[in-house]
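Thread title: Can someone regenerate the structure for this chain?

I was given the following input by a collaborator and told the matching structure tokens would be attached. They weren't. Posting the sequence so someone can regenerate them.
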Amino acid sequence: MKTIAFANQKGGTGKTTSAINLGHALARMGRRILVIDFDPQGHAAVSLNLDTEPGVANWLMYPSFNTAPLTPEIIQQWLRTTSCENLFLLPGNQMTAKTQRLLAIEEAPISTIRDLLQPVRRMGFDYVLFDTPPSTGGLQEMAAWAADLVVIVTSLDYLSADGVSNFVEMLGVLRSQKKWSGKLAGILPTFYDEQTRTTREQMAHLEKAFPGQVFTPIHRATLLREASAEGQTIFQKDARSRPAQEYEALAQRLAKLA
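Best answer:
Regenerated them for you:
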């Protein structure tokens, strides 16, 4: 089982859209996928036409309120099937934010999420994808530390570019001070529009700052917004569309890395 975190310290960069569509792309390749939604907004569930629920909070807080070990059977009750074959979700909601505060009060170790993944590893998933919250530290840091690969998702604007640099610095700290054993898979630019000077400039800046680490960008597309609003992945909306082809290519590339 491989774990991939989608992250940025800034919100609105397309993390959830990328996690969901990349997850479905991998599922279409025959892999069994679990998306874990660490964002308190619970948009992963909404994007898959499901209800937001405290699945993540129940999972994270289980050791604090129970003496019996966490098992796959217990976790299974919090998982939700989706309308996409081989794609499953551990949903989140506002309880996730309260859980993060409780973990901080308890001074939970950086290894908390990785430790809780042990029973998940016995559930037959090929990939577990983390949709992380935009806030720094806390669950985002724990999720990154638990990940084999990290994909930094960034929209092509100046503020998001700063978020990329800050997150790369955080990964460096995790590696040097916390013995993180994962690696940066790459940087995924989103909302790309070659007709706009700003996006072209930011794309060039990313490629110069992080040579060989920038994925092919995901183009800005009305279809992606419509799919999310309708609770569908881009493959359910139009599997032959350009964004579907772009996420499919990304899935193939990540599958080789992982």
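The two ends are 9 Å apart (CA to CA).
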